[in-house]
Fold this protein.
Amino acid sequence: METERLLLRPFAEYDLNDLYDYASAPGVGETAGWLPHESIETSRDVLQSYLDKKDTFAVWHKADCRVIGSVRLHDSWTSRNDKYKHLKAKEIGCVIAKNYWGRGLATEAVNAVIAYGFSAFGLEAFGIAHIAGNSPSRRIAEKCGFTYVETGEYFSAQLQKKFDDIRYILLRDIESAGDMPREALT
């Protein structure tokens, strides 16, 4: 997937140093429920999981010729929600390097994945969630057209802490909602 400033592609082994650079910065992982990478070995293990699962895209910044984050498609909270479990849906998780925050790059990456998921995978919906208080992630969800659904609970094993989990949905179209009451779509 390509946008004006980004290329979203599978991770490769040569992305290890870029992954470590952004994932080791304080403040990046904690807002998503994970600890900063303390060593290159931690990043190597995470990278290997990306290579094995093939569910995470590297966010390549064209101008700087480096990976500055990731966008992951994974099982969604929607599969556990009676109103949405009938939908073919994935959840989007996005991380961008701290020194690239505030430039709209995460929104650009998420919008590209949404378009790709609806067209290439035939998805009917996307879920997205963030830890309460993570205002930048809330703004990304809003800018990408997601609608707030509920507040749940998220337990971070790495941080050994429970958080309020703010959940949103983006439907491909009204027909995707099936027999859901109209008020459930707003």
